[in-house]
Amino acid sequence: DIHPVRMPQMAEVEPRVRATVARQKMQQEAMRRLTEARREIAQGKTLDQVAAELGAEVKETSEFGGQGAIPGLGNIPELVKAALSLQTGQVGGPIADPQGTLLFQVTDRKGWDPKQYAANREQTRATLVEERLGRLEAALIAQRRRELNVTYDRQLLEQFGINPEQPG
Which has the closest alpha carbon to 105: 91, 86, 95, 87? Predict the structure, then answer.
């Protein structure tokens, strides 16, 4: 259906407006409470203690870098930037995202190690070259099979223990 442009009646939009306002108020309250909690942590409480008082859950994520999502939380660029700017043991936040509001503590940092990079550089390069050559070889073989219209005797291959469905 095509409807002409019009201003909706208040009764039509009221439920969405109320839900949006309620969500904004909850987020403001969460930001206020977490700002207070951060002050309490600065005064000596632990993140676990504050979380228990607030009835909140403490989650630990696996390692993450400056690009991509945080495991278990998703893609929150503001959180990634803030976390990577802090040192081990420091607390950051509160940060709001569509799922809620959070405080965080940096428990470990691993920097880029030029010595480790130099030691693994050639091995990594050789592995990548080998993978790319393998893909190229498989693609060339598949192309030649199509061009030459190669067929297989399924029974014969199975007698030799070769899976006829597997390429190569």
Answer: 91
